Amino acid sequence: xxxxxxxxxxxxxxxxxxxxxxxxxxxxxxxxxxxxxxxxxxxxxxxxxxxxxxxxxxxxxxxxxxxxxxxxxxxxxxxxxxxxxxxxxxxxxxxxxxxxxxxxxxxxxxxxxxxxxxxxxxxxxxxxxxxxxxxxxxxxxxxxxxxxxxxxxxxxxxxxxxxxxxxxxxxxxxxxxxxxxxxxxxxxxxxxxxxxxxxxxxxxxxxxxxxxxxxxxxxxxxxxxxxxxxxxxxxxxxxxxxxxxxxxxxxxxxxxxxxxxxxxxxxxxxxxxxxxxxxxxxxxxxxxxxxxxxxxxxxxxxxxxxxxxxxxxxxxxxxxxxxxxxxxxxxxxxxxxxxxxxxxxxxxxxxxxxxxxxxxxxxxxxxxxxxxxxx
Amino acid sequence: xxxxxxxxxxxxxxxxxxxxxxxxxxxxxxxxxxxxxxxxxxxxxxxxxxxxxxxxxxxxxxxxxxxxxxxxxxxxxxxxxxxxxxxxxxxxxxxxxxxxxxxxxxxxxxxxxxxxxxxxxxxxxxxxxxxxxxxxxxxxxxxxxxxxxxxxxxxxxxxxxxxxxxxxxxxxxxxxxxxxxxxxxxxxxxxxxxxxxxxxxxxxxxxxxxxxxxxxxxxxxxxxxxxxxxxxxxxxxxxxxxxxxxxxxxxxxxxxxxxxxxxxxxxxxxxxxxxxxxxxxxxxxxxxxxxxxxxxxxxxxxxxxxxxxxxxxxxxxxxxxxxxxxxxxxxxxxxxxxxxxxxxxxxxxxxxxxxxxxxx
Lengths: 375, 360
Fold this sequence. Notes:
By secondary structure, chain A is α/β, with parallel strands linked by helices. Chain A has helices at 3-6, 10-25, 37-45, 71-81, 104-109, 120-129, 146-158, 174-182, 196-201, 207-213, 224-239, 259-268, 299-302, 318-322, 346-349, 354-362; strands at residues 30-36, 56-63, 86-90, 113-116, 134-141, 164-170, 190-193, 217-219, 245-247, 269-271, 274-277, 281-284, 288-290. Chain A has a single domain (1-314), classed as HypD, alpha/beta domain 1 (Rossmann fold, 3-Layer(aba) Sandwich), CATH 3.40.50.
């Protein structure tokens, strides 16, 4: 099976587009949220929104783990990276995230040893190969990437690597979804459930969406055909008066998730009492920290962190964009003071942020009208 | 023999020794090679001139005197090369140093003719490694039919440079009556690419070994002059050409959209991309449209001439996979839009940031 080309097959897409148009024609306007940043990016990258009927609005949720890191934590990372003998390793899209006044990219230009890696295990390898460096891995991500951080912590412990630690900023997906559903004035008709997070946690954790809020949720993949099928499945549920958790991404997501990954998470991490989310404020039990057994590899226990809370700039409306209350172009500073080159807030910073995705891909709307009846 | 004769014999021997050509036995570059003295001369003779010396270069004057025909204009360009790793599948910094400059001239409609080669060497660079790059320069120059007529060599202390950096400047000649430029581009024109794109950038990325990807991917570094010449001969009405190096096809099209104040539409289902390139890009979250090329060019031709253009290009090796990938319009001036195979569309913006540093 050729996973990329089959799920980008124009013929399959055309059938789904027609089906969506048919279902939507008999329903009131719908607002669906995609929680996952990867979905936001894919929707814009493949011009999916230009294919959906006008009555369907995709609302972009807070599923971009880089976007939601508070500025104060970036400053903490810069402070660690700027110390003598420290080598900081992080993913590429963290380099340009603005802290209070600077970025990791700027700190690197000023002499800090900051290196882009594709996996925390790469950072551990650097620590093993360069014993005179104090290597710190800047860990971010939802439950998707937390297991690889867990494995790395365990390997570091097993191999007794003493010059390695983790600056943990992992977050979990369910609390922000709840926070958004609880926001006053929130009007959503359904969710495109996170794709890759679900490979770890499965689909059971989302049951609260249908049981407590009466909304359908479809766990969806990232190719154009996946997303279109997910939207079609949501519309079908609404048409049939159902509110269930369904799995469109069956080729990758098992309803029970990945038990060994979940076990690893349980062994390495515990929940912080609360954690600040950029644009959403403090959310209880929404982030992970390393357990005491891993204290020797917890950067927060080894470095003095400024730990200063930096408030979002007054002009920044990221919070409202993240909740889906306003669209990117409705933000007062979108495209003027806030651009991908000069990002003010989180939604513009990472390529998965709603504003960045819209700015980079979606500014131009070429609406194609799809006939309801097949030709 | 008188004392006088003995003395004359010794003086003659010293004179002979002074005039003999310097020998090159060093294994690594040292500061002496940059000092301008005997060691510099030895390096120039034994390494550079022996590889690509010619009548003009061998004069070792301070400058080359070049003869420009009356019916031609001079096209002049320059490029610096700092690629790492210096050798990679499909080529080396030496190949890039020649082809990069040659291609800039070719897409300006000029016939690349003369090149200068300046190099900054790091103390400690192995001579053997330098010789391979110089051999690559010589071979690429021959293949591109250009002559090296000027050069310079500097040496910096260990750590002040990374191995070696090359700068080449090039002169090409083009007929005075040639009209090629963004202002010639019209809505309705066809956008053609001379072959598969994304090859070079991904080859470099994989050669860096940061990722454990098992793929054979070669840089596409090559002179495109034969192809540009064939195109100009078959379609003299060609509007504009550009080589999409850093920033890829996307950046080149954006530059055109802004310079000509037109809209550029690209059609994704026509894109010629090698499976290994699209596979590697998928894995890394990169878009081949933004990945550098070193042996390709984009051409804009009148719509009615598109087939003739593609045929002419396909008859040349370096552009055997030339294909139409888009068209010029007046609907979204200044913007590049890509159309997906199932009717969706998205903006292809200028690249922000530096996803792949030091690729050329």
